[in-house]
Specification:
alpha/beta, Purple Acid Phosphatase, chain A, domain 2, 5-stranded mixed beta sheet, globular, binds manganese (II) ion, cell inner membrane
C-alpha cells in the first residue's frame, strides 16, 4: 500500500545516533522514514548500533532487524551506503575499508555536494576530551589540542580493552546542567575548527543528539541529531542544498490517516519521573 508520490528522492541522506539495541531507539519512526526516503548515497554517521547497551543486556527486537534489513536491501538495490562508526559502535572501527553486504566502513570521509562544496563527515566523539577541557586547552595552545585528541583515542582503546564502557559525553553534560549550552557550543566550535584544518566548507557530524545547521565562523556546521528523541536526518537535494528533516514532527503533523493511526501509540508520553540512569539510552 505504498504511495509512490509520498517518496522523496535525495542525492544523499545523513543519519546518526539510532542506538539500535537500546529501548529508546525509535525504530518504527526510522522504518517509516526509510520507506519514504530514497537516496543515491546514505551515510550512517555513527552510533547506529549501541554495542555498549547490548553488552549489558541483549535487546534486539524484530524492528532492529527490520532497520538493518531495510538498509541492506537499499544497498542491494544500488544505494551506496557508508558506515562511519561512533563510540557506541566502535567495534566497527576495527574494520576500516571493509565492505560487508554492500556497506563500506570508514573512519571519516570528505563528501562533495552536488554544488562542489566539500564537507568533512565524522561522528564527533574524538573531540570529547577537548570539549571537556576547553578552557585549559585554550590556555595551553595548539599542541595541547592535538595531544588531547590523541589521548582521547588512547583512553577509549584502553577502556575498551578493560571492558569499561565508553565515557559518555551527554550523560556527563547532563550533570553539568548550568553549562550544558556551553558544551554544545564548545563542541560545535571544536568540530568546526577541525573542518577548517581539513580545508573544507563544512562538517557533518552526530554524537551530541542536537540537530542543527548553522554557520560557525565561515564553516557550515551540520549535526544529524538522533533517532532516540528527536528523529532527525540531513538530506542533500540534487542541487546540493541541505535540508534538516524532523520526522517525528512530520508524523505528528500529518492528518489522521494510515500513518498517524499506525504511529499514535508510540507518541504516548512516557513517564517523566524516570531520569535516564542508563547511560546507553540518551548517551551520545
Ligand atoms: Mn556518540
Amino acid at each position: 500500500m505504498e504511495d509512490a508520490s509520498e517518496t522523496r528522492h535525495f542525492r544523499t541522506l545523513f543519519i546518526s545516533d539510532v542506538h539500535l539495541g537500546s529501548k529508546a531507539a525509535k525504530t518504527d519512526f526510522l522504518l517509516d522514514f526509510l520507506r519514504t526516503h530514497e537516496a543515491d548515497t546514505i551515510i550512517l554517521v555513527g552510533d547506529i548500533v549501541d554495542g555498549w547497551r547490548l553488552k549489558r543486556s541483549w535487546y534486539w527486537p524484530q524492528s532492529c532487524n527490520d532497520v538493518v534489513q531495510k538498509l541492506l536491501r537499499k544497498a542491494r538495490k544500488g544505494t551506496r551506503i557508508v558506515y562511519i562508526p561512533g563510540n557506541h559502535d566502535e567495534f566497527m572501527r576495527d574494520f576500516p575499508g571493509i565492505h560487508f553486504g554492500g556497506i563500506e566502513v570508514a573512519q571519516r570521509i570528505v563528501h562533495e555536494m552536488a554544488d562542489g562544496k566539500k564537507y568533512l563527515v565524522l561522528h564527533g566523539d574524538e573531540f570529547d576530551v577537548v570539549v571537556r577541557n576547553a578552557r585549559l586547552l585554550a590556555y595551553l595552545g595548539d599542541w595541547a589540542y592535538d595531544t588531547a585528541i590523541a589521548i582521547n583515542v588512547i583512553l577509549a582503546a584502553v577502556r575498551r580493552r578493560l571492558g569499561m564502557p565508553y565515557w559518555s559525553f551527554s550523560a556527563w553534560a547532563k550533570l553539568q546542567v548550568k553549562h550544558a549550552v556551553n558544551f554544545i557550543g564548545e563542541f560545535q566550535r571544536v568540530v568546526a575548527d577541525e573542518a577548517r584544518r581539513a580545508e573544507v566548507d563544512g562538517v557533518i557530524c552526530g554524537h551530541i543528539h542536537h540537530a542543527v545547521m548553522e554557520d560557525i565562523d565561515g564553516i557550515h556546521y551540520v549535526n544529524t541529531g538522533d533517532w532516540v528523541e528527536s528523529c532527525t536526518a540531513i538530506a542533500e537535494h540534487p542541487d546540493g542544498r541541505l535540508e534538516l528533516i524532523s520526522w517525528s514532527h512530520k508524523v505528528s503533523e500529518a492528518p489522521a490517516g494510515k500513518r498517524a493511526s499506525k504511529l499514535v501509540p508510540i507518541l504516548l508520553p512516557k513517564p517523566l519521573s524516570e531520569p535516564s540512569q542508563d547511560d546507553g539510552v540518551r548517551a551520545a
